[in-house]
Amino acid sequence: MTGFRERYLKTVHHTIERYRLVEPGDCIFVALSGGKDSGSALYTLTRYVEERGVECRLQPFHINLGFPFSQRVEEVVEEQAEFLGLSLKVFHASDYGVDMERIAKLPRPICSSCGLVKRYLMNRLPRELGATKLATGHHADDFIVFFFKNLLGGNLEWSSKFVPKLPTRGKQLGRIRPLFFVGGEENRRFAEEVGLPHLKEDLCPYSTYGCGVDRSKRMWLEVIDYISRRQRGFRRRMMTSIMRLAETLSTQRPETQPLRECRICGEPTSGEICAFCRLLEAQRRVD
Ligand code: SF4
Ligand code: ZN
Asked: Considering the domain 3-284, what is its CATH architecture?
């Protein structure tokens, strides 16, 4: 094994162990998008569970959004699960009333609607199938970008959930982020080195700089890359500070308000009707 691969695995496994992301008896649903990040999250979790002999279940799953290119994405995700000897669960957003073609015609950014659909189904479907945790491929660069955006926007408290593990809260399934201390480029290199199948280009026609990446995120990613090439340990130190800040913020402002349940679908929401049901309602009104 190369020095890089060893260091990468050591960092991720240390994160899993230190923050108890995997515990005996867990049923962890791992969300796969076909990319290097979620694929690396599944790979490292699988290796961790095998090496430590943890009695738990890892269940990779994918949400097929119903775009014309979604079939190709699903094939790659199938290859990833097969590569690791796991069976995949695929859910179709259309089975839950989603029509991305109609949603694309709404006067709101398509990536924001797409993200909303994914977040909603990624919470609801695994939970209904008995998941104890949801694992995602969110990594250090994602959190650092959001942190800077929140800081500059005067919304520092929005960073209060930037931690490797969020506990289950009512119907809100607990989240684990094994890649919390590694960046996107490291995930790409790791996936390449271990031969993990993954999408190398963006298939979505709505993607400008990458799936869900806008101009400002692109700029921040370049800044992070610039600094980390000149300052060793930048990502790790940033993430340690962001995590400490998040812990302080959530201690100072504990979530006292219980989450309500959507009047239509029963899923968690802060209002009367959840954003997903409101999106479906708007979609119905599209000609
Ligand atoms: Fe969805 Fe990604 Fe396409 Fe945006 S770029 S619409 S987030 S798949
Ligand atoms: Zn709802």
From this structure: 3-Layer(aba) Sandwich (3.40)
